[in-house]
Each structure stands twice: as C-alpha cells, then as structure tokens.
Amino acid sequence: MKNGVHEPNSMTLSTIDPDGAPDARVLILKDVDDKGWYFASSSESNKGKQIDKNPGVALTFYWSIMGRQVRIRGNAIQMEKELSVKDFLNRGAVARAIALIGKQSTILDKLQDFDEALKQQMTRVRQTPDLASTSWKLYRVEAKEVEFWQGNEDRKHIRLRYQLKGEEWIKNLLWA
Prior knowledge:
nine-stranded antiparallel β-sheet, about 25% helix, alpha+beta, 9 strands, elongated, single chain
C-alpha cells in the first residue's frame, strides 16, 4: 500500500480440477497471521468443490509496480462455522445477496434471470441482516513452501524459497 500497489491483497488461487488440470482465479486475501493466509468462497463453487477433493493449493501475489512476487504452496483448511459466518456478514449487502443466490460458475441463460435473483436475495438480506449462506466458508492456507521473488531490470532476479521440514523452515537461495 505504501508503494502505491493497486489492490495489494489481490491474489491468484490455484486449485486442481477433477481431471488433474490446474485452475486459477483472482481472489481477495482476507487476513494473514502466523497460522496462514485466509480467503473465503462458497463450498459449492468450482474452487470449493476442488478444495474439498484436493486441499493442495497455491497462492500467488504479484505487485508489478514493485517487481515483486510471492508464491505460497500448501493446504487449504476449512475454518470453523462461526468464523465463516462472521466473514460472510462482514461482506457488503450486494456481495452477500449474490452469494445467497448460490449459482456461482453455473450457466446463466439470460442476464434478466440474474437481476431477478439478485433482487430477491437483496430483499432477504434487508429483511434478515444476520442471514448467512451455509455454503460460505473461510479457508486458511497452511504453507509448506513460500517463495519470494524480487525482479531486477538486468534480469538478475533474487529468489528465496522457504520449505517447511517438520517444524523448521529451510531457506534456500534459488537460481534466477
């Protein structure tokens, strides 16, 4: 933020689909602490279903203005229901209403159907402000590997990789 990075908490979440192919999309990092990195999604979305089958994920942050990237590999762990509800209720009304529609990534025949469903769910959100989607889940990524990349104009990039071995993080400098 201090360096003028637009949306510095945007990250790419990569999962594996049922055929073993990678799948990636941009999400918002909700929080980070000494236990891991947090994001939220519907467990009924493609990403939620993929995480349920294979919790191995990768997170990628790239801040071009600074020439920096961070890659994280680990497992996505579903957090307790209370934390998921709290996260859901902290979202804006429109975001909650869209999540309550519950059709993310399914085929939409016409935009009018979306507008009508959104209108119905907005009414529910206004009438029941503490209504939370049962499929909304907060996840924590527990890292097994973290790599920091610092770009350099002369292409002599610096790469540091930390790998968790037991309870210890092993640091290695990597070739650019």
